[in-house]
Structures are given as C-alpha cells and as structure tokens.
Design a protein that fits this description.
The chain is 70% helix and 5% strand.
Amino acid sequence: MRSRFLFALAAYRRYHENPDQPARKQKTYKVSTWEAALLVAQANDNAYRKNARMALAQARRERLAAQQSGDEATEAKALLDEARSHWEINQFEQSLRRSRSALRLLATRPDPAQTARAWQQIATALLAQGKLTRALQSWLSGLAIASEHHIFPAICESYLGIGNLFLIEDAANRAELAFRYAYDLSEETGDDGYICKTGLYLLSALTQLGWIDQARRILKRLWPLIAAHPNWSPSSRSDYYLYLAACQIADKQHALADDSLAQAADICRQGGLLWGHARVGELTARLQLARGQAQSAITPLNEAIGLAAHFDNGYLLQRLYLVLCEAHEALGDAPAALAAHELYHTARMRLLRDSNERMRILDANLARRVDMELRLHKLQHERARAPTRPGKDACTGFDWLDIDLPAALPQTAKHAAVLAVVVDNLREISLRRSVQAGNQLLAVLADTLRTACPQAHGLRIGGSVLVLLADAATTTLWPKVRLRLEQAARRWSDEDITVRLIMADSLQLDGETATQQLRRTLLATLEAA
C-alpha cells in the first residue's frame, strides 16, 4: 500500500516546497470527491517522474564530462543536480550519497553557495528517511555557511527547514521564531516569491499557536502578491485559503469560513493537492464543531484520515485524530473518543521516532541550543545589514553589539568576566502588554545592572539579552547582582504575567576570543533554563 501511494508524498512535496512553480493545466475529471485529487496527483506524479529521470540522465552526462576534463566545480554542481533528481523520484539514499560526494569535492574547491546547497540537499534526504536529528544538524551547517556569506535564498531555506522540524516536534513557538526570521529577511530583500513562501510557513505556526491577530496581518500582506501572480502553484493559493479559514473559524465567521474552505477544496481537487484536501477535511470538521454540530464533523474527518493514510508520516494524522477525539467527546461517546486518542498517540510515536534508531528527534537541550543558534545567526545578519546603527541603545543606555567587541572589553583585565541576562518571555510581555512595556522592563534591568556594577561595561544583544563585561575580580559581585535582578523582576511582575530571567556568567579561557566567550556564555543560559 505504501509503495503504491508514494506518488502522493512526492506530489505533496513538490507543490508544498516549490510555491513559485507555475500551475499546470489539469485534466477535468467527472468525479467530485477526493478521488479527483488523487487522480490528478497520480497524473502529475507520472509527468514529474518522467521529467526527473530525464534531468537525472542529463546530470550524469554532465558529471562524466566534468570528470574527464578535471573540472571539479562543474562536477560538484552536476552531483547536486543528480541528488535533486534522485530525491524527486524517492531515491533518498542515492540522493544522500550524491550530495555527500559533492560536499567532499567542495571541501577542496570552496564554493559557499554550492556548499550551502549540498547541506540543504543532505538535510532534505535525511528528513525523507526519517533521520530528523541529523537533518536538523545539516540545516544548521547550511545556515552557518549561508549566514557567513550572506546567501539570501540559502538562509531562508535553512530557516524554513529548521522551523519545519520544530513543527514536527510540536514546538510551534520555536518554529514561529525560525519562520519569522525567514519572513523578515524576505521582506527586507523584497523578493515576492520568498515573501509568499515564508509568509505561508509563518502562518502555519501562527494559526497553530492561536495568534490570530498576527495571522490576519500576514494574510493581508500576502493576498495582493498571490492575486498578482495567478501562475504561482496551486498549493500557495490553497494554503492561503486554508489559513484564512482557520482565522475565520477562530473569529466565529462561520459563513465566510465555508466560502474559504470551498475555494481551497476546489483548488486542491483541480491541482491534485492531497495534503491540502486532507486539511480541508480537518478544518471542515473544526468548523462543524464550532457550530455545535459534532455529528457532521465525523464524515469529513474519516475521509481526511483515509486520504492522509496514503501519504502522511504521522504529522497530519495526529492532528486529524485529535479533532476526531474532540468530536466523539462532544457526542458523549467516550469509548470512541478513547480509541481516537490512542490512534493519535500511535501517529505521534510514528512521527517522533526514527525508523531505524527508535529515538526522539529533539531532546530539550538540543531544542534550546538550536533556539539560541537561530538568535545568534539572526544577530550576525543584523550586524552585517545595519552597520550604521547608533552605538548606544536609547532604551537601556548600553552599547549595541555592533561596536567592536574586543575594544569594549576592559583593557586592564587579565581575564574578562561576562554576565549574560536573558528576559526569556520578553516577546510574550510585549504581545500581552505592549512593546513599550517590554522596553520599560529592559530599562529597569539595565539600571539595576548599572547600579550594582558601575565599573562594568554594558551591552545589549538583539532584543532580550543584556550583557555585562568586567574584569575577573568583579565576579565576586555576581551573586549580589543576580539577587537584585530577581528582586527587580518580582517587583515588575503581576498576577497576569511573571518575568522569567535566565542568567549565566563566565571567565575568559586561555586562548579564547571575546566573541567565543560571549557565545559560550549565551549557550550556557540555555542550560540554566
């Protein structure tokens, strides 16, 4: 059964991961149920497989010609083209081998763009094999190279890949962070295709988190782009209507949600979008539950589960089973609700465990480390993008990290001491109260640091991190400083929200640069969390 419907998974990947592809003209089928989408997906898959095999043969010819001429750069590019073609026809192990061969060639002839592409191809092949931890590490490797050399498409793809893994782990807040970075970067560059692509990924996290106000703003931004590009892939248009329907259901605009789901279903049926069609079933069920019509939610859910079982690795099925559980609970059918919940756990374990190693893809420490890595890469990009930012932060009175870090260290210090303070929930504070409230909190903490250690040098990093730089003797004051910060945080907190501070300190090691020490200290804040 699984091999019979591999084309469905391939069709979903091509539509979902390439929203800038032009839409294909489809045959018109007389069936009106989800079988229509299945038939179109099969026809599309046959055409894509044929094209992929032709591209694979062409890439092989180019690789052999490059080997004979000794052109390693062309050979590496041809290997990556082969890897992509193998991936498109579900030959994931061959894709992985070709990508690694290209990476070995590029080690002797550095090409940052191709090296980042190789790491991304490795990550996608590992993801398809279910080796998600290694896929995450590959995305991070590609992100490091792309950030260092300011390769915009590679940075965006890495952020999206990392965020997608966080969604699989059900860490939507971290996924939103990665998707937000990609979306902000796309807005800065003005690339319509990437604004749309990253915006849709961001909407997936926002709607899952229930941040409807922010989702509405993204939807409003994307619609003119989608309307202006009618030849973009059907998946972009269907995803837009699906996220619009999710927001309308949350706002209790049931009639409008009906219209949006009808639009999405029509696009999915004509384009052969199996993933989208299953999502239509899920949201239709949620709409019926919102109307208090639980019995009407059962049929679309069962159809969506039957369709998703052909191609899904557990991510979509777990969502469908949870909604099915809610529907049976609303009907008072406890045994059926329990059975649906058990099926949810089965799909969840299938998703979160490697098919060979049988292990969790992300433990808590790795997730937090990746979270900080994302922030550090974002900071690196900001420093390169805005070198003319004022040296002083008006909010805290501290220097921005844009200044030369070694010059900011105390010149008389034999070993520099660093104290890092992270306001872990600053984003939540700014969203629930206001941005001004978040700035006031930072100002209070900065003033506390300045008063406790008047000889130390203050830095602000990104949005939520304050750092003190001092000589080694100052470390005796750190316990008192921590106590004063905690007291300030308690005074600022109230019944609605509590300020969460994470603190870590360090001494500079022999041979360690100031930047390396700062990075080590920031990562240490994750262990203290």
